[in-house]
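Subject — a protein and its fold
Fields — amino acid sequence, structure tokens
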Amino acid sequence: MSHRTRTQTRTRSHVELAQQKTETRIVIDTEHGTSGLKEYSGFVTEAYNSSLYWPHVATEYARIRTSTPAIVMAARQFTAWARSIKPVINLPDKPTDDDKRYKDFRESDFENMEGGFGQYIETAIGRVPFDGWYSWNLVYGLREPDWTPPPYKDQQGKTWADDWRSEADDGLIGIRRLAPRDNSSFWRWDFDGAKRMIGWYQRDPTDGREIRLDKKQLLHHTFGDPNNPEGNAGLQPCWRLEGLQRGFWTVLGIHSEHAAGYLKFTKTEKGDISTQTENLLKQAARYILTAQEGNIATMPFGFDAELIETSASAANNLLEVIKHLDILMLSVFGMQWMALNTLTGTGSYSAQTDVTQSGITAFNSMLDGFASQWDTQVERRIWDYNKDQFPNMTKRPRFALSHLENAVPLQEVGQFFSAMKGFIPLGKEDMESVRKMVSWLPDNNPRPEDVIVPAGVQEPAQPDPNMPQDPNEPVPVTPQQQANAAESRRVLEQALNFMTANK
């Protein structure tokens, strides 16, 4: 009896302990430490050479970006690709009517803002990967045609009317313009105590005054280093390569000039050479060896002259070094495919195709980074201003950028489908994908009544109404098809038996 009582007591004690609630405390502490960015008085010193510190590097980067052929090639290719990039608003799986209305609002806003979306994307692609960063002042506007934006006030206090007017008429808050704030006007950064960038100061080039641009009013893009407001400029490694290349170009020019030959003077009379005679010899050499002056010169008495020809033996080697530096600079941006055959004289079609795809992949990855920054800095703010007008939205849609598709040569498309014929069934959506892949055909297949049949070619047979419409339903097989399949199996079995017997 006592044993049973002890057991019941012990069991009741465990139950009581299990029913006790455990209190968990989560301590929300402040942030500790700093980002570790090398920043002093608003200036970042992360670059490996002091010549690459902002703001004075802006002039050097502008020179390289606009005068170095390899960099200009990469920038123009990026810009050409950027013209086909479109903004994308991704909806949830089961969107509500408000979700769809908000998507329509955002898509219309990209063209309602001044300059359209194309102006933004071309500026971003043409500057950010090369300089490492770029900023726009995000200016909002009321989407009503009768709404007049507030005027701009300059440093002298004069007001300037804003001629922007909304083409949309829904009363929502959208983007009036993305006003570029060129990084050539950058003066210094503004950081908080944890060394997070909260704005930057612009020095006006006309009067030298400083203007603070708050981060909350900016779209600030970075490339290469998301933890540095200056990013990691693609021109930073190119700076050293371009300097070396410039030196080799100078050497090649001097070498080519020397290859024109030189004059050998022989003194035939006794006596000292006067200063006047020496000047005459120099003048004669310049006249004879300079095409602009002609090839006739008056020689002083007592001297014979002989033109000694030389060869530019090092020219090819110097030119190869210059080409190699071009390829290295293009490789920084994944654009080395532009140098195959055209700059190197070597390479193959397959290699060029592979590296082109690699360049497009790098370009698309860069677009994803820009889209993420846009979504965080722009779409969240637009959502906060307008979310009350869309009470039944599932969630805020995410912003993305369309990708650049690699154009597949038509010959390869034909070879692929010839090889896959009989193995992979093709439907309407497959053919539409093929049309998009070759890039110059319309996206949709033509209607049966619009199909043009060349003269002498039999018109395609119309679909048999007795054939099953469900793709999962088996297709009837004719007796002839059954006989052909049986013959194919017989030939295959003979071949297998023959191979087995000769092992």
